Amino acid sequence: MVMDQILRSKPFHLDDESIQWVKKTYASMTLDEKIGQLFCPIVFSSDESELQELVKTKHVGGVLYREGPGVSIRENYKILQDASRIPLLTAANLEHGGNGAVAEGTFFGKQMLVAATDKPERAYDLGYISCSEGASVGVNWSFAPVVDIDYNFHNPITNVRTYGSDPDRVLTMGKAYIQGAKDAGVATSIKHFPGDGVDERDQHLVTTVNTMETDQWRATYGKVYKGLIDEGSLTLMAGHIAFPAYEKEISGEISGIIPGTLSKNILQNLLRDELGFNGMVVTDATPMVGFCAAMERRLSVPLSIEAGCDMFLFNKDLEEDIAFMTSGYEEGLLSEARLEEANIRILATKAAIGLHKKKENGSLVPPKEDLQIVGCDDFKAKAKACADEGVTLVKDTQKLLPLDPGKTPKVLLQILGDFPSNDRVYPYMEKALTDQGFSVTKYIPEDFSKPLDNVSTFKDKYDLVIYLANIETASNKTVSRLSWFTLFGLGNNMPWFVKEVPTLFISLGNPYHLMDAPMVPTFINGYCNSDYVMDAVIEKIMGDSAFKGHSPADPFCGLIDARF
Length: 564
What we know:
- The protein is α/β, with parallel strands linked by helices.
- Helix content is 40%, strand content 12%.
- It has 21 helices and 17 strands.
- It has helices at 2-8, 16-28, 31-36, 48-57, 70-83, 111-117, 120-135, 167-183, 214-219, 221-231, 244-251, 264-274, 289-292, 297-307, 318-330, 336-352, 355-361, 377-390, 422-435, 455-461, 531-541; strands spanning 39-40, 42-43, 62-65, 89-92, 141-142, 187-193, 208-209, 235-238, 241-242, 280-283, 312-313, 392-396, 410-416, 439-442, 464-469, 503-507, 522-525.
- Strands 2-3-4-5-6-8-10 form a 7-stranded parallel beta sheet.
- The radius of gyration is 25 Å and the shape is globular.
- The termini are far apart.
């Protein structure tokens, strides 16, 4: 009866045929298969025998590949699905485009760019395009949308991955993404419960803390999650995020900092009982320090499932983690009831997106012809429109724009940040400016043992300085701040010259750089470094297109000096 209630209720809504498949499949499973279904490892191999062994001997319930060439990713998924007795959930981080699954997929735009359009239809486009391109290679599970709320501009990991700091906008955009994913036939996983963006630290490096009081949480994160649960997201990703105020509300005290992935209070009382989530819960990546440092791994592996997670994401070592899960079951750390419930929800998720039927008719991985949708003209046009509508002029107090190569022909172009994408971004923008008629000089760090520019020589050399901040948010980067190449304030990297020469700052990543460069009088947020965004920036600074974006969070970081 309990099983039927799970399967018939939101978000699964399974019909009788699908319910029978879930029951029959579960009844046929060995203990090793039930344990194996709990795991979703990241896979790097393309060796056919290794892939077949993974599903035949480990019996994993899901897998994730990092983005790669569409043809090879598709072939790998076909090998895995053909070899697996139970169809696999195949995951990808489809947060900002199909390129999260397919290397040649559409880079639609970071979520904050989408939010800056203030158009939910662009969030729908993001969900539909990302998931359609992922589905073309066999992906059926999107680890998106990110529904964290970017309350703390110091946070180095939420940032442009979010829809901003307004819970209502986050909820609206999240709903639209989910609908787009549904229309593409892909399950979504809202993340990272109970909510990131308050702490300024990164779960990859530490168990982070949502420090909100429970009433405030319910009015913000709770509102978002309840709305998306009601919208019917099939799965939810639990983060390595502690919520001490809620722990105290339920237990009467705070006995320690425990991540949501290991907290019965957060997963059972809050998520299941209060918010009414009946779908499948997957942990965030378990090699993160935020999970590993909470307790001994031999305990945390089985206790994450016992606490209320249904699937265990990634591994320190798959064989060892399976052994920990098995011994935890044998020792009673993982109960029979929770093992069954987790498996039922995993199977129900698979049935809800029709994987059992696709397994029967051989369509779990689409034909090669479906790859034609990747990067198609329609998807590119929508990504271009999103960039046009999202790029945001934060301020232009010097009335610099639009630019005119006749007035400021000599440009010093400085790229900030040290990322591999610099090799793409800088030449792209340099060429675009040159094509507009500017003479562009690339900033080269000075040799401080040699004579440096004084004010007069600097003004003779340059009519305009353009900063190109390409500082991407990335795992294990504790800050996304500006660093200058300078000695005692000397050199031309740091903006000493803003009152001497017109200065323009273009951010293609972190939107909060006015924290470190408040003196720059003209500031643009592009939110990401896609070609579409760079093209839109050029069009707008040249006056060929109006700025249309609306800041989804405070780009002035609460600082009065940053506004001038």
